[in-house]
Fold:
Amino acid sequence: MNAVTRGGRLDRATAEALESCRPLDPFAILGPHEDKAGRIVRVFVPGAEAVEVIGRDNGTSWGTLTPGTGAGLFEGPIERSGAYLLRIRWPGAVQETEDAYAFGPVLGDLDLHLFNEGRHFELAEALGANVASMEGVDGVRFAVWAPNAQRVAVIGDFNSWDRRRHPMRLRPSAGVWEIFIPRLGAGTRYKFDIVGPGGVRLPEKADPVAQQAELAPATASVVAAPAAGLHWSDAAWMAGRAERQSATAAISIYEVHAGSWMRQKAGAGAGERPLWDFLAERLIPYVKEMGFTHVELLPVTEHPFGGSWGYQPLGLFAPAAIYGPPDSFARFVDAAHRAGVGVLLDWVPAHFPTDSHGLARFDGTALYEHLDPREGYHHDWNTYIYNFGRREVQGFLIASALHWLERFHVDGLRVDAVASMLYRDYSRPADAWIPNIHGGRENLEAIGFLRHLNAVVAERCPGAIMVAEESTAWPGVSAPLPDGLGFSFKWNMGWMHDTLQYIEHEPIYRAYHHDQLTFGLVYAFSERFVLPISHDEVVHGKGSLLGKMPGDRWQRFANLRAYFGFMWTHPGKKLLFMGSEIAQVREWNHDDEIDWHLLDDGAHAGIQRLVRDLNRLYAAEPSLHASDSDPSGFAWIVGDDRANSVFAFFRTSRSGAPLLVVCNMTPVPRHGYRIGVSRPGRWREVANTDSRFYGGSDLGNDGAVQAVDRPSHGQSYSVQLTLPPLATVILRSED
Structure:
């Protein structure tokens, strides 16, 4: 039966369906329509008292609509054609606005095709909410993917969160729902009201592609200001960052949880200005002064629970509201680049939380995730796993990565939990996973996604880097495509575990664990590695880095200094979590700031000076960074002195002087310790972690030693050294 009766009036059944939010095509009913009686305008505005149609150009009346069959329905003929406004009389107010149902489709066929193919990499400009102009009218375009929904409406402050007011148009070729609502702008709060299969109404959903969200625990999405409003002054940085981030560059990363590095003090506008502006003033100069080349931020994508530190995100396109709006984050990145500091983000494409307002069962079906929990559910984290085999999901994730790299000029992403993506049996018993099509444990779809991701980033974002947090021996993580996964670098989790276990042993027992410090060199050049001492090592009862060190107070600090000396001279880029550089005593607590007062203590201040000086030495000496991924740049000199727990090795490069590194991992000073060297002449002591400037005993080699013509350790020359207790000494050949 035709929904429109004689005279252009809507029949009762259709009017009731409209009022009760049952599935129908709103654009086939509402807005302007032509029939035998002429032009009809029909609007549905529950709660309104009267509606008049007026000309947009001059405001003259074109006719008053009469109440229809259902409450809130107004309809009637108008004599003119062209653009019009609705003059709506509400109790106590009159509103003039364009009719949302007078506008055509929001998305073009190319948008829909690219989305279907998983290749719409400007997805945030197509889906979600975007400030736009249509037919000369300013407003907001809304679009959301919900292919299995029977009805979708956008709700928000603008329609009193009334799900009857703005049902959306379905574009069936892509399963995308869309609408343009005039006279809305940036700052508008909104959600989607969805009726799923079987007519089941779902919890109100936040926008998966929202570029801004309201402050948690509130869960609405917010229309963000256009990217064109962001102002950048980092052209020089962007042009030169490829060289700064290459495998031969000095890369030393300061890992930061933005919310707990330092609190804004009361007064002086604190609490009013975004945290990003405060961090631009305080964190960036600190990172620069400390000699770090990059700051890496724990996830700053929108997340509902602060205790997840961002690792359970729901808004992969939105900076977390708790830290400030998107433009403030852009200012932070721009300030970092002006200071010569790169910005890396932790990014989480492996899984997402099950919160009902988020991606979970978004349209009433397993849309972003797998339905079968053996593929789609992480028991460890109570999260859903993305369906990497679905093109639209791949495109969604890749578009998120590009959003941060392109819109916010971020210099790279550290991809979280890659191991959980690569293996179908990750952290699962034998009966709780499904093999791949070949019967194996490898997640072929995730592998394809990661390769696709890295290929697109390499093509579109020159100089940006992709870093994998991958904790297994998966081959070729940082090998080039198509055979490898195509990452720029990989976290060396094995090195981190082995060396921390070694340094936690009392020195008297280290002779029995000697291989824990040497084993990393067996595979050190199999990937391009980052050596990570990350947040994961100083939480959940693991204690602080200083707290892991054995012995009395002096020995704990000396152990830490020696360990840092070993880390900064070991092949691989460096990463250190905030607080470790001042020898934080207690483990990290995301609800408190770093214990900056510790710097009043000389031992803590000494650790900070050491980290600063190691960063500067690492950057200044090509032999310490240019050959990080080249086995020719490393050679053991003493790797088997278990009895004394002494280690010695060369670091070399084509452009820098050779360096000799010697570590004494016992509290026993060793005098007259002979070590073979490759060159005669003077070897200057350029670093000594036992220096009094760092809180040590100041035992050393009086600034330099002279190599003599006496073979040792397979070398033609040798030097006789004093090895301070629990210390790393670095010497440079000056001839």
